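Thread: quick sanity check before group meeting

JM: Hey all, I'm pulling together slides for Thursday and realized we never actually wrote out the predicted structure for the chain we discussed last week. Dropping the sequence here so it's in one place. If anyone has concerns about the input, flag it before I start.
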Amino acid sequence: MTAMTTAVTPVALLGVGAAVPTLRMAASEVAAAWGGGGRGAVALCDADEDTLTLAWQAAMDALAAAGVSATEVSGLWWGSSRPPFAEGPSHAFLSTALGLDPTAAATLCSGSTHAGMEALLAAWDALAAGHAGLALVVASDALTPGVGTAGEFTTGAGAAAFVLGAVDPAHRAGNGSGPAARLVNRRTRVMAVVDRYRGDADAATGDVYDGRLFREEVFLPLITAVGRDLDAGTGPAPTAWAIADPDGKLAAAVAKRLNGPLVSAPVHSALGDTGAAAALLGVIQGCTSTAVSASASASASASAPGALGAVAYGGGRATAVTVDISRPVPGADAAMAKLSTGRPVSYIAAIRARGQLQPMSDPIQMGLPPAGAAFVRGNVEMLGLEGARCRACGVVSIPPSIHPRCNGCGGGDLEVIRLARRGRVQTFVVNQTMPPPFQAPLPMVVVDLDDGARIMVQGVSADADVLAIDDDVTLALRLYARERGIPVYGYKAFRVVDSSVSPGTPGASGASGASGASGATNGSSVGAGARGANGAGGGGR
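JM (edit): ok, ran it. Output follows.
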């Protein structure tokens, strides 16, 4: 067992965001199928969600909370145990969908549930070295446990995002006039052990071989030791803890050894083990108004809420970080309000959503291969949801790559813009039967966006019975299909049902993306919402 220490320069936590998937499965559902017992529930992705769509949503919320545009950040540091591509453009897809500058710094960490913390540390290093001014950090996971394994009781899904910035030297001591929270200390320990793992040919992640051995000789001693290492570093000693929890019991045992409350417990209870996102989601919980108030009440001074220790684990690596919290962090309350959302599903529905229960019928293939010329040329405008606005008449033609001239006046003076993410339903149709991999009922919705563009995209099954003309909708990135092993992403329309939900969240009021000028009011082209016969794709083609 090796302890690793470094000199630490504090960085500021400017805003946070979180994303949770649509589905929830109670532990009792697994018990009914396989026996055994468990408590709480786990979150899992529906067929049109994955680790990238969760990362996108969390990042959008964090940017909004921090009051920062995507083009202002110096780079994107993303950690996910299992990104969409084992080898491929996972990071490029996410950064493009978020609207980051093409020259922004890029880091993707993967391979274990420690990946989210590794992304955080890498961004921290870039800020401390002066190589970045604003850093966007995202940790997301949607792991698949093996059918009939203990992991089915606890394996969840979710994402957390931080916007980090450099700390003014005058505020490094945490005198209350600086940022709401600062990352002030970090320690890492390594232990060469085999815990949960997945081989190259495996679709699911297996359990640890010996649960008691893992508990008593790996997790408890390693996590406890790295937590205690924080006391020897700079900054205040943690008085509360956010700890990644593989089985719903281990984190509480560690927190007891470290003599502090486990503030991350509500996250695990609602979502299960969120893998690479677990520690960061726990930090967000500790930065809410409720948690900060409780911490301040328990401290010697009501003006000093105290420090939170966050510990991530995966692949034999454990890292602990101290977060010095002065007041609630922007975005934390809205992020944790999402824990109470979700649609309950049965065990059969859960394994179907995870792709572990498949129909015998073959999925309908797209008309165009996703690595072909049409997608290569149009993928940026699909992920970024771009249009071409005419400088002469203001009409927006979609997508730009196949509209070299304006659909309205025929002019050629066009500029590429990122379309608004909010609009109203102009018309729609609901498909009551769909071939796999699509789920019926599936609305196809024509949306008049707030910037004057008109686009046709898929809706969601949950809105099929209540969707109406003139409904407010927001557009959110979703997984359309997996074609020849390649994930294909596009935007879907979600009815606005709750104005209190943060911008960018499906069903939220007031969500919008970066828009162009608002002069276009007619003549915008209507996209087909598809690049092939099956309706998969992004902004219309």
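AS: nice. The longest helix spans residues 211-229. DSSP finds twelve helices and 21 strands in the chain.
JM: adding both to the slides.
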